[in-house]
Amino acid sequence: MEIKRDVYLNRLIIRKHNGFIKVITGIRRCGKSYLLNNLFYNHLIENGIAEDHIILFAFDSADDLIKIGEDPFLLDNSKENRKVDPKKFLDYLNEKIVDHGMYYLLLDEVQNLGAFESVLNGFLRKKNLDVYVTGSNSRFLSKDILTEFEGRGDEVHMLPLSFSEYFSVYEGSKEEAFDDYTVYGGLPAVATMTTEEQKVTYLTAQMNNLYLRDIINRYHLHEDCAIGELLDVISSGISTLTNPRKLSATFASVKQARISEVTVDKYIEHMEDAFMLSRVKRYDVKGRKYIGTPYKIYFEDVGLRNARLNFRQIEGTHIMENIIYNELRFRGYKVDVGVVESRERDAEGKEIRKQLEIDFIASLGGKKYYIQSAYAIPDQDKYRQETRSFDKVNDSFKKIILVERSMKPRHDENGYVMMGVKEFLLDSKSMDS
Question: Does this model's pTM top 0.85?
Fold first, then answer.
């Protein structure tokens, strides 16, 4: 079963020959290798690139390592965590590059190559090399890896499957698909599994034995450190305002143990670097400035979040908000949480200030959208509650309310648009409806 990832494929295509190293980043198992070695490779072939001018090399492949004279068994069992000899790889590469034509270099798991930063920087000086790399684990999971390439790295960040990608291979209705997606998320391997037992086992194993293990190894943390338990606390509170102090207090209450605010902040940063989750700051719409704390935390994949909680606490409101956040990022938008100040009078006639929240401000170039994730709007009172913050925004950018039930876009007298979240997710042009 082939799952098309056209959005990411097109992002690679438009970057061809730009003189930068194209770096595909993203959480482990989100499909980076498949994008590079299958989808992009096939694009090159279909556009007339000769096979001998496309050099694929996977630094975790025994077959490829043998080609350059490395013993994969010795590398895997090296106590010193030895890397692939860069000289052996460069010698192999020099044998492949035999003319001045353009060569496409597709390197997978490049963090396993010794001195990979220096090797890749060297490629930047060769006019006939167009370089694309992926990496996982250790330092290559870091979101700031591009700094290693002297400012000449071009990142394509890849998320797990969007709902539209997931639905493209789902056998069932969009309602059934959305229900499964909110529980099991969008890791490509999960989308191909047929039973709940398979999905639960896979996600639980990945979260505990791969993602957390990577962070513990990368930062040389103790096996009994509190990062896993902190992740439990964070998982329970997705899409709610929080900060290190609040998380530290919740940790003490729930786990009956102490963890400092500094350690909380450090552990969250580790999880961000591994692309497991994102912190989203609040933006004061009228004051045009960011508010440092509190912030919201969203997961890169809701299935992994649910697995961490043993598939308890699957609250539709918070999960839907997380899915909308990831969809906006999938579409290329910069996303903030909005805050609008309102001046009102209390029962005694005294003026008070209130902060009204806009779930998301999505910006891309000159485009901007205000979006509320409302889950359900059973009556007019709830509708007014959800749109109060919109009323206080004095600009002409589109304002959208998303609900869980299926419905086509509807416009009210203020120009606000309400639509079903599934319709929003499945239509790439839904924000302009």
Answer: yes
